[in-house]
Amino acid sequence: MPGQSLTVELHRVTDDIFRTFTWSRVGWFAYWGSVGLCGYGWSIAGLLWIQQIYSGLQVTGLNHPVMWGFYITAFVFWIGVAHSGTFVSAILYLFHARWRTSIARAAETMTIVAVMTAAIFPVLHLGRAWRFYWLIPYPNERGLWVNFSSPLIWDAFAVATYFVVSVLFWYLSLVPDFAVVRDRSGGRQRAIFRRLALGWSGTAGEWRGFRRAYGILAAIVTALVVSVHSIVSWDFAAAIVPGWHSTIFAPYFVAGAILSGLAMVLTLVIPARFLLGAQDYVTVDHLENVGKLIIVMSLILTYSYVMEAIFSVRDDRPFTRSTFLFRVTGDFWPLFWTTIACVSLVPLSLFRRRVRRSLTALFCISLLINVGMWCERLMTIVTSLAHDFDPSVWGTYRPSVFEWTIVGGSISWFLFWYLLLIGHIPAVPIAETKQNLLESHRG
Amino acid sequence: MRAEGPQQPIDFSHRAHYVADNLDCEYCHSTARRAALAGVPALERCMGCHRFVATAHPDVAKLTRYWDRRAPIPWVQVSVVPRFVHFTHEAHVRAKVACAECHGPVEQMDRVAAAHDLTMGWCLQCHRQRRAPVDCLTCHY
Amino acid sequence: MKRRDFLKVISAAGGAAVAQGCSPAPSETLIPYLVAPDDIVAGEAAFVATTCRECPAGCGVLAKTVDARVIKVEGNPEHPVNRGTLCVRGQASVQSLYDPDRFRGPLLRRGDGSYQSMSWDDAEAALAAKLREARARGTGRVAWIGQLATGSFERLTREWLALVESDRRLFCETFDHEPLRRAAAMVMGRAEIPTYRFDEANFVLSFGADFLETWMSNVEFTRQYAALRRRRATDPFGCFVFASPRLSLTGLNADGWVAVRAGAEAALALSLVHAIVADGLSHESVRPHLDWVRSLVAPYAPEALTAITDVQPADVHALARQFTTAGPSLAVGGGAATRDPHAIDLEVAVLLLNAVGGNLGRTVTFGGGSALDGLATRDEILDLERALAHGNIDVLLVHHANPAYALPGGAFESALARVPFVVSLASTPDETTAQAHLILPDHHSLESWGDYAPRAGVAGMLQPAMAPILSTRASGDVLLNVARRLDAERAMALGPGDYASYVSRFWGALSPSDQAWTDALKRGGRYSNAAPVAAAMRDFTGSFPAVPLPDSRPAGSLTLIAFPSPFLYDGRQANDAWLQEIPDPVSRTVWNGWIEIHPDTARRLGLAQDDVVGVQSASGSVTTVVRLYEGVRRDVVAMPLGYGRRAPLRNAQARGARAAALLPPDGSSWRVDGVSLVRQGRRRLIVLQAETEMPPGRPPMAQVIRPSAAAVARERHLPADLYPPHAHREHRWGMAIDLNACTGCSACVAACYAENNVPVAGERACAEGREMSWIRIERYDAPRVPASGVRRFESVFLPMLCQQCDEAPCEPVCPVYATYHNPEGLNAQVYVRCIGTRFCSNNCPYKVRRFNFSRPSWPSPLELSLNPDVTVRSAGVMEKCTFCVQRIQAGKNVAAREQRPFRDGDVTPACAQTCPAQAIVFGDLNDPASRVTRLSQDRRSYHVLEELNTRPAIAYLKRVVPE
Question: Which are the contacts of A34, defined by CB distance < 8 A and separation ≥ 6?
Fold first, then answer.
């Protein structure tokens, strides 16, 4: 933005980002309309869940031998989505990738909401959901403890930790921005943001502390990004089920998670930047960078697909082999090939600059990748269970209306909270943007 | 001792029968030694004595009316273990566990009340002390 | 025992488990006895010895009663017929006892066809009045058609009918074996069913006789056959060949299959005799008869009959050698082949075979006095049918017989409509009762006094195991009361008192405390060995009709044969939910009937698995479902009898099709030629466990061993573990299952349902793969046509239940310790702790865990059959087999009570207890002397999916198949 003095620019930044708080009438209706719509969506799903608790899991398509289906798939999917948030902000922060700033806020918020969504499913899929608290180790009169050797327990801990740390990370970056909002607003809003800003006054000392804390948290979160999805993958890898029992699962799930997360970032940010009028801050270059990351992740995944194929075909025991063949050719072949198409082939198109820079293309690709990742998880879970060791009890699986609705409901639950949050906080980090601006001016 | 147990169809006093007539528990709860259930005495058993003993007593009169109507007495159960617990008196009597350890000083009660809540933790502590099996399948199957 | 007191029962434990298993009980009411029965302790099991009346075999049972309710039946170890074991139908008899569709009391049909309930007094009065009229109109105007009865009831009916001036009494069974008696009369001059000794034989040749499922006395024969197999385990040629157009469950157990053309069994048998005589293989005992036998079978040279029998002469000669060299051998004939124009020819030929094989007097003896000898012949039935049609009968009493359904065609039904007054003594609705004017529901046999003698020397006792739950009345008492109303002084002849005292008088009891009588009550009857009488074959050349060649069929025309359903028998048990829910061992179907078609034939007709087809024959047409099966000839389709009930029975009505509707109406044959199948488009999934052939490349689940490999020591899989092994200090419970003995009869499955309160899922849930059975019978086939010799169909039945692994994959994945390894080696499953993550089921390679997708329910009064020793599981909970841990606890308790160490055999799980072949052995693997330890070290023993290193506690013994 040439021909303007730095101060003016800095002011403009604040103004622009601030504009996301003041709605046009249309914008207001659009916003609350969609929030309300989502609320309606997930409350329908909620009602179905109540029905499911009342009449048992017979309302699902689950059966013997396929005891896990849509619900667990949804869990893995949303945990996956939760990943890029922190990936984008934390890891890229550590690597000083400046472009991250523009989408960091959107990504982190997404992370938190995604975890909130994911956390529902392990409870929702229980046979006796009202006993979920038995998964938590608490001193009780029975003298019973949880089984720490069960991957499901590791899960509970991993996800909880991840959620807490992500929230801290997210909130910390918000504190200075809250302060800005506080200073510029009056009345009740001011009151609220005064509390949220924790009395931030922007002294040099505060900034020093902020940087150190932010750095440390970033480091921790980075570690978690890797650990959480590794642990989720062990829900499967630690079992002996052919097609699950594989050492490659941890890295492969993490890569998959980041890929689906990045895709979800695009899916959300591209519309959001128009809605919030943040085109100048979330620029096409930024989105293009995400596109590049996507290529990398997709290649990693493709690699692990190939590896898995080779391992299974060359496995000396017949089970893994036949499970693999069943995936490729069996009842569920469409899932497999959709996965390959959406996760391995479609992203290749991003090698072309024109595609990378066309927002429509990026948006569509991101949607396709999400579909692909969903299919991949469903395929991994169901095919292995449907045809495992004992041929005389091989089965199949067809999700029921309940499962479709509840999983659909989880999407509206996700959007519901996402919209609520992003609509009431600075959608782009003010302080950090300014800082980048300063640094770019210095040279 | 005054204990606030549930109101029974007949104000049967364990204290009276134990102290006054010093009847042993197993005189009425006769299968405690050889079966899972200690056994609620049949009316026949009560009438065995009360045809002659204390016939004037209002509650004995009540009892006699039940007997004449050939109607059993709907006693209210005081010591309840959940249905998924397979408790057997026999094993506990064999292990020389006194009745009172679970049922409390029944012999001092007029209207019997539960002395312990009979929760799993409560059972376990005793099983641990006595090195009795604490395998879940001991009671849950 | 004081039966009146049964009604006033304390129910602290009795009803305890019944309601909602996994929820703490609210404070309950304790209802004490008025007068405590001396032989009943509240909550403790008591056993009552009585006799199973589900089929004419007459096995002895011990009814297990808790708080005066029968909760299970088990075989009576003292009874010579079944020696403590029971078949699947016997186990299910508890279901018919608590059948929700049972009649609640006497019913009288109004003019408009609706029924009105009435008091027993009025009902008996009504019957007496009708009988008085009938008697006034002359003799023989009252008829009795009923289930086979012997002893006291046989006499009562005889005396009673005499009272109403009649002797028309027919005992009817759908499977009556009449041709056998006729043949015996011709060949031996004795019109009786021979006694067979499978255990004395070294080789068995069966012409369609399903002696392991429905034929005569399947429990006894299964035990004998298992003994034979054990003895001949190393025989390189096998010990059992099955000659029939269709492989039944029995056939699947055979070492060889001669797929003879339907209707040509007689011809084949005769050609075998011819071959034996011609090849000079006949036993010396028939030397004197050889000349006339030779001339008799002269026309039946194997070479000449190939076109008819479709069996190669070489095979016939090979079979002849096998049949005679093993010696003594045994040939039997049954099934569709004995409901056939050639039935008698076949049975004659079979007797001849046994004669030339030198089996008479060894494996086939006479003078056994089988109860089946008392059955009505088909002529007698047709005669009665005519009498009914011509209105010569005023009052017809039907007692536990269902001719309207069982007899082919509708002739009997229309004849029934002509009878002015039909009285049904059935306890559940059936097709015959539908036409009854008066219904006087009988007690179930477990509620009744009586007796039944399946054969000479075995007098079984029936005594009530519990008080009747409904307002029913023993038919014996009805007869006595009516007799007294009818004719007080002539009724004196029947003696005083009720039917119970009639029975005790019949048994010669002087007083209720009579020693012999009480002894019989305790042991469930009186048993002695009736020595067989010497019987000699005689020249019957004159009376033997030359076997006409079976009508030549145009190529491609289909023949339908009907066969007895191994579970529903002739349909009488079709309403027992367990028998509908347990997969048929051959077709794997549940909750429905089917028609078996060879895959090639199906391809030719454009039919596929599970297609709904219309089946058309000269006599009628039905609609059923296609099951592809390589065990039928290409020119044959097969349907089970016992399906397609019309009576209002919740589990049976309109399930499957009534095969009898397609058969010749005269009931002469279970075979009908020229049937046509028409695809009706809709598909219906009715099958469980579709896979019966092992996918290539996998280690077989059910393993076989050749006799030559018998000497080879088994190669053990070397376990490698990160963790130290479990210490099983006191006990390590284990099981050994001998696949060489298991016949796939599924009795163990029914026993498990009964013992462990396993809920019935129903057809829809089964189709969704949500059946609840803890143990299933898997079957793996290896069909093969060797270059020479008879065809083989190597089937192995594999009872699959929780393997109680030492390194169980299910255990570590449970987040709440609902499943864990207990100190005695069981994979414990604590239902109250389970929250239903279902990870354990995913991780179980044997897939033997069952999840409650819905709240289990027992339509009243079935909840009374629940076992109080086992918690009823609630929705959302995983459940599984734990070797009947309640029995283990009880067994240890008894040992402690008697202050002695635990002994091998103190505990027997329900499945092992009932196994007629005694293929399942349970015990303590820590005890080096226990049977299970010895068997698990047998050279044939192996673990299923051993390479997964789960280290199961169940060792399977490989099935021996011929070279």
Answer: A415, A419
| A142 to chain B, closest Cα gap in Å | 4
B80 near A CB under 8 A: no
Query: What are the tens digits of pLDDT across the range C314-360?
Result: 999 999 999 999 779 999 999 888 888 889 999 999 999 999 999 99
Determine contact: A141 vs chain B, CB below 8 A: yes
CB C32 to CB B75 under 8 A? yes
What number is the average pLDDT over the span C651-671? 90
Instruction: Kindly give the pairing relationship between strand C364-365 and strand C195-196.
Output: antiparallel
- For chain A, percent of residues with pLDDT exceeding 90: 53
Q: How confident is the model at residue C548 (pLDDT cuts 50, 70, 90)?
A: low
pTM over 0.90: yes
Of A149, A150, A240, nearest to C948 by CB-CB distance is A240
Nearest to A119 by CA among A75, A153, A152, A151: A75
Q: Would an 8 Å CB–CB cutoff place C532 in contact with chain A?
A: no
Question: For residue C181, what is the enclosing H or E element?
Answer: helix C178-188
Q: What mean pLDDT is predicted for residues C671-678?
A: 92
The packing angle between helices C290-297 and C343-356, to 10°, is 140
Highest mean pLDDT among A21-35, C400-414, C567-581: C567-581
* Backbone phi, psi, residue A283, to 5°: -90, 170
Q: According to the model, what pLDDT value does residue A434 have?
A: 77
CA distances for C476 relative to C125, C154, C214, C486, C726, angstroms: 16, 10, 28, 15, 60
Cα C408 from chain centroid? 22
Whether B77 and C34 lie within 8 Å, measured CB to CB = no
Q: List, as ranges, residues 32-51 from C with C-beta within 8 Å of B.
A: 32-36, 41-44
pLDDT band (50, 70, 90) for residue C717 = low
- Report residue A144: phi and psi, to 5°: -100, 145
- Burial pattern C204-241, b for ≥16 Cβ within 10 A else e, equals bbbbbbbbbbbbbbbbbbbbbbbbbbeebbebebbbbb
Give me C384's structure tokens. Answer: 């009665």
Quick one: CA dihedral A363, A366, A372, A377, positive or negative? negative
Name the region of C590 (left: φ>0; alpha: ψ -120 to 50; beta: rest). Answer: beta
B134 close to C (CB below 8 A): no
Q: What are the start-end ranges of the H helices in C816-882?
A: 839-842
Alpha-carbon distance C647 to C478, whole Å?
A: 24
B106 vs C783, higher pLDDT: B106
Q: How many CA atoms lie within 13 A of A59 on its CB side?
A: 20
Please name each of the domains of chain C with its CATH number.
Answer: 179-372 (3.40.228.10), 558-687 (2.40.40.20), 734-960 (3.30.70.20)
C36 contact residues in B (CB cutoff 8 A): 41-42, 44-45
Residues of B in contact with C10 (CB under 8 A): 37, 39-40
Catalogue all structural domains in chain A, each as residue range(s) with its CATH number: 6-442 (1.20.1630.10)
Q: Which distant-in-sequence residues (6+ apart) come within 8 Å of C345 by Cβ? A: C266, C270, C545, C547
Q: Do C813 and A238 touch (CB under 8 A)?
A: yes
Q: Does A135 touch chain C (CB under 8 A)?
A: yes
Interface check for A96 against chain C (CB to CB < 8 A): the answer is no
CB-based burial, A347-380: b 16+ in 10 Å, e otherwise:
beebeeeebbebbebbbebbbbbbbbbbbbbbbb
Give A26's pLDDT tier (boundaries 50, 70, 90): confident
Q: Which residues in chain B touch residue A140, judged by CB atoms under 8 angstroms apart?
A: 121
Contact between C817 and C838 (Cβ < 8 Å): no
The residue of chain A nearest to residue C878, with distances taken between CA atoms, is: A127
| CB within 8 Å: B75 and C29 | yes
With cut-offs at 50, 70 and 90, classify the pLDDT of residue C844: very high
